[in-house]
């Protein structure tokens, strides 16, 4: 897919961000940097502050103190539509797209880049029609890239759960972001869908050169695709480094054990079961293609 070469992707700097909710400190002076063109994972047990952090970055919550910078821009006090205009796009943990066709939903993602006003579009003035056509072509290209091209004109409500998660990813990509925030992109997917999504995310970074910040409980996926990992616990950054460094960090092991090693998918940085699932799947595919 044609795209930017990634050279204009700015560094995202989260600097001592604190968020308090009526006595509860959800984020406690958390700092980390997402390097241009990297895949950076934000992990931690339930309630660690990951979603709160995403909500600050995307302008949904305002930080009590600290700052978030994207290149030379201070994002801290900006509303969502301004952070989006600066190049930040996000997906949501729970699928919110249930109406219209895939194309309709992706065109919502193109909204930022649409110049024709509502009236010109409603009256189908030639310039507006031309613009719509160009955006629709780009949306189709992004649909192909994310593996849902065959469903472009289908209602999203008829798609499988895994494909609807892809529509959510494609909608975010339609904004042509420089930094993509993915909130649990494989939650609820089966092993095959997870593996396919991991490949798509890796391909997004490779082909588009964008930075990806990902919150995900599937540690197998994080270990496969992340360059850097930041670990939060009770709102604090307790560790950071490569997936391998983080996996061996005693503070990280302690945090996850404290959360309960049997507590479902959130069972630790070295969730052997999940990693095995992905690796077995990989092995099976290699055998098939041999
Ligand atoms: N709007 C809010 N009002 C009050 N407390 C909140 C709000 N949002 C989050 N919290 C609290 O802040 C803390 C951090 O929550 P957050 O959702 O950011 O954690 P998380 O790491 O995303 O957890 P999970 O993995 O379960 O999604 C929790 O104690 C949560 O109850």
UniProtKB/TrEMBL annotation:
Domain ABC transporter: 12-259
Keywords associated with the record: ATP-binding, Nucleotide-binding, Transport
InterPro entries reported in the protein's UniProt record: AAA+_ATPase, ABC_AA/LPS_Transport, ABC_transporter-like_ATP-bd, ABC_transporter-like_CS, BCA_ABC_TP_C, P-loop_NTPase
PROSITE patterns, A to Z: ABC_TRANSPORTER_1 (PS00211), ABC_TRANSPORTER_2 (PS50893)
GO molecular function, one term: ATP binding
Source organism superkingdom: Bacteria
One Pfam family cited in the UniProt record for this chain: ABC_tran
Sequence ranges of Low complexity compositional bias: 260-270
Alphabetical list of Gene3D superfamilies matching this protein: P-loop containing nucleotide triphosphate hydrolases
Region feature Disordered, mapped onto this chain: 256-290
Keyword Nucleotide-binding included in the entry's annotation: yes
Cross-referenced PANTHER family: ABC TRANSPORTER ATP-BINDING PROTEIN, CONSERVED COMPONENT OF ABC TRANSPORTER FOR NATURAL AMINO ACIDS-RELATED
Protein name: ABC transporter ATP-binding protein
Organism whose genome encodes this protein: Kitasatospora phosalacinea
């Amino acid at each position: 897919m044609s795209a930017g070469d990634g050279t204009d992707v700015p560094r995202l700097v989260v600097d001592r961000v604190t968020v308090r909710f009526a006595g509860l400190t959800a984020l406690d002076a958390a700092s980390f940097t997402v390097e241009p063109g990297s895949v950076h994972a934000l992990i931690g047990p339930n309630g660690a502050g990951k979603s709160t952090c995403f909500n600050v970055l995307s302008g949904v919550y305002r930080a009590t103190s600290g700052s978030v910078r994207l290149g030379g821009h201070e994002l801290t006090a900006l509303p969502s539509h301004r952070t989006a205009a600066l190049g930040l796009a996000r997906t949501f943990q729970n699928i919110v797209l249930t109406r219209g066709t895939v194309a309709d939903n992706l065109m919502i993602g193109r909204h930022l880049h649409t110049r024709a006003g509502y009236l010109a579009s409603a009256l189908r003035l030639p310039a507006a029609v031309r613009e719509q056509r160009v955006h629709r072509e780009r949306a189709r290209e992004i649909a192909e890239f994310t593996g849902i091209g065959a469903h472009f004109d289908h209602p999203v409500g008829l798609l499988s759960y895994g494909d609807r998660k892809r529509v959510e990813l494609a909608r975010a990509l339609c904004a042509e972001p420089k930094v993509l925030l993915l909130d649990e992109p494989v939650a609820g997917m089966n092993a095959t869908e997870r593996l396919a999504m991991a490949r798509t995310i890796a391909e997004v970074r490779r082909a588009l050169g964008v930075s990806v910040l990902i919150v995900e409980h599937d540690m197998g996926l994080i270990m496969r695709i992340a360059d850097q990992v930041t670990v939060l616990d009770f709102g604090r950054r307790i560790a950071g480094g490569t997936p391998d460094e983080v996996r061996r960090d005693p503070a990280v092991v302690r945090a996850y054990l404290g959360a309960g090693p049997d507590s479902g998918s959130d069972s630790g940085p070295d969730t052997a079961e999940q990693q095995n699932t992905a690796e077995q799947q990989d092995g099976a595919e290699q055998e098939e293609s041999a």
